[in-house]
Specification:
- This protein is mainly α.
- Helix content is 49%, strand content 0%.
- It contains three helices and no strands.
- The chain is elongated.
């Protein structure tokens, strides 16, 4: 027996996640669909460049009125 061999250990969190996946096999697919709905978007690079060019620089202190 090797000195590096250890019994297989799984944390409580890992066990909980594995149990949840067994109870609901569609969980990962639902998570991916939710991520695609909120985060995985195709960006229009041309529009982003136009937004950056049209940006107006902000004053150091926003609430200060401009002194002439």
């Amino acid at each position: 027996m090797s000195i590096f061999a250890r019994p297989h250990y799984t944390s409580e969190i890992t066990g909980f996640i594995e149990e949840m996946k067994q109870k609901k096999p569609t969980l990962e697919a639902e998570q991916r669909a939710g991520r695609a709905l909120l985060w995985d978007k195709h960006l229009d690079r041309g529009a982003l460049e136009e937004y950056r060019e049209a940006r107006v620089p902000q004053q150091p202190y926003v609430y200060q009125t401009r002194v002439k």
